[in-house]
Amino acid sequence: MTDDANTELTTEELLSQARGNATAFVLTTIAYLKERGLAVEDFVDFFGHQFAPGWDELRSQPVVDIARAVSSNAVSVGCTLGSLSGDEAGAEVIITGWPEAEEISSVLGLEPNAGDAMWDSFHPIMERLGISYAWRREDGAVTLTYARESA
User: Fold this and answer.
1) Where are the domains of the chain?
2) Structure pTM?
């Protein structure tokens, strides 16, 4: 017998599960590559190149809007957005945590910040858009910087 009250999942339940699944998929891929002695950097570069064409519609947008799109991707997998600022020509994003990644990394035997490798996937995307991009980890947070390259 089915209890209809137990068949409905809330949006929050689904979002939480999706975040965990996405994080687990990325980190399990990293663990798999490391276990087999394969270059994580090659996977990340391939990943970025595959998705770069999908960002073309943002080419003429203010850099802060592009940074917001990156932030949306990060938050959708469980990162915590600390701040986002910028304008037409440049932007800065601070990601203050990725709790699921730290927990799942531990389960997989990875270092706590193993998921940081994925920040490099945005290099080919930003290059395609003519935006200089860099990231750094400092004091437990990740800072992403963007600047539109001069024509």
Assistant:
1) 10-148
2) 0.89
Q: What amino acid occupies position 73?
A: N
CATH of region 10-148, choose from 3.30.1380, 3.90.350, 1.20.1300, 3.40.50 = 3.30.1380
Give CA–CA dist 7/11, Å, rounded: 13
Closest CA to 46 of 116, 120, 105, 136: 120
Residues 99, 39: Cα–Cα separation, whole Å: 25
| Contact (CB, 8 A) for 81 and 75 | yes
H-only helix segments in the chain: 11-35, 40-51, 63-76, 99-108, 122-129
116 touches 137 (CB < 8 A): yes
151 residues of the chain, pLDDT tens digit each: 555 667 889 999 999 999 999 999 999 999 999 999 999 999 999 999 999 999 999 999 999 999 999 999 999 999 999 999 999 999 999 999 988 888 899 999 999 999 999 999 999 999 999 999 999 999 999 999 999 987 6
